[in-house]
Amino acid sequence: MPTHYKGKTDEVLALNTFIKLARSFNAVQVQIIPPLQKDYGLTESQFAVLEAIHHLGPLSQGQLCQKILRSGSNVTTVVDNLERDKLVRRERDEADRRVQIVQLTERGRALVTTVLPLHVSRITSLMSTLTKDEQRELGRICRKLGTAIAG
Amino acid sequence: MPTHYKGKTDEVLALNTFIKLARSFNAVQVQIIPPLQKDYGLTESQFAVLEAIHHLGPLSQGQLCQKILRSGSNVTTVVDNLERDKLVRRERDEADRRVQIVQLTERGRALVTTVLPLHVSRITSLMSTLTKDEQRELGRICRKLGTAIAG
DNA sequence: GGAATATATTTCGATATCGAAACATTAGAC
DNA sequence: GTCTAATGTTTCGATATCGAAATATATTCC
């Protein structure tokens, strides 16, 4: 029954590939997230919010949901903590009063300006264990996988 | 100042590659984790613990830490909840009474036996958006990245 | 223009997750 | 053999994270 065996080898390949994908992602994460926390008191999600606003300007919480790939209730919590630490400010959208616009404070801007270059160079250094061609090929395959699944 | 520009293009490549890696991993996760929760009431970590014990036999909590890549205190919490749901049982190691050995109950074994094939075929189906060669190449590059960073 | 529906955010309750400190037990030094 | 250091687990306090329900506001449909 060849189909059966083929099914199994497909499963083994898929599973091994996915495990390697998960491990490599985790390995990078473990190198880049703790420094944010230890040196600047920022969690991964807090940093993601700061970075998004830094690059894109003020965003609503709904837009932040999409950028950082978290639920609405989670964004509320994360922004609460950032606001408490005076790194962002919430402001009601006057045109649609359901919406909360989140923007950087001066303090938040200063922090992200300091942290971002360090973060980027840490990632660059880690990824440089791969050749440029390997990085491009990894990017291509991941992109294909991601868009095929998530659209 | 060519070095400066080279630094920047390296950073752009590394960052883009890492973002694609993160997104593709996330895209797969979003497809495979919610069904575990919705259909069987299992969180990702709970399933990871059950799967590890299923494959490897009874493990200490310290060994589980290494397998599921979480902190010791987290494993305590996850095993607490699994024990409450009667999916695993803790037993003191008589040879070293600091150690808690975690093993499947009948109920846990039955559950993992049901869930695992569905989980595997879901992953296989998602990864099959890539050719076998692409899966192998993705695995190879991820492995290189992961081992270079984590050892 | 008021009722029904849709959308943005918050609240709530549960689990995950971490690091530091506490605790229990073992292993090593002497 | 006892004191000390190391190891395995738990506890504690904080943040993350989700989904469901609640709330506030906007939009749509007669």
Report on the architecture of this protein.
With 151 residues, the first copy, chain A, is mainly α. Chain A has 2 domains: 1-40; 42-123, Orthogonal Bundle (Arc Repressor Mutant, subunit A), CATH 1.10.10. The first copy, chain A, is built from 6 helices and 3 strands, in the order ααβααββαα. In chain A, strands 1-3-2 form a 3-stranded antiparallel beta sheet. The interface between A and B is large, with 45 and 45 residues. Chain A binds a DNA duplex (30 and 30 nucleotides) through helix 2 and helix 4.
Brief digest:
The structure is a homodimer of 151-residue chains. Chain A is mainly alpha-helical and 151 residues long.
Largest sheet of chain A: 3 strands, antiparallel
What multimeric state do the chains show? homodimer
Structural class of chain A: mainly alpha
| Count of distinct strands of chain A | 3
Examine the coordinates and then state which fold CATH places here, giving the name of the CATH topology of the largest domain in chain A: Arc Repressor Mutant, subunit A
Shape of chain A: globular
Proportion in helices of chain A = over 70%
- Kindly provide the radius of gyration of chain A, computed on alpha-carbon positions and rounded to a whole number of angstroms: 20 Å
Strand content of chain A: 5-15%
Most extensive chain-chain interface:
A-B, 45 and 45 residues
Order of helices and strands of chain A: HHEHHEEHH
Q: Runs of chain A with pLDDT <50, length 5+?
A: none
Count of structural domains of chain A:
2
Number of helical runs of chain A? 6
Q: Average pLDDT across residues of chain A? A: 95
Reading side by side through the largest sheet of chain A, how are the strands ordered? 1-3-2
Q: Do you know the CATH architecture of the largest domain in chain A?
A: Orthogonal Bundle
Question: For the record, what CATH class of the largest domain in chain A applies?
Answer: Mainly Alpha
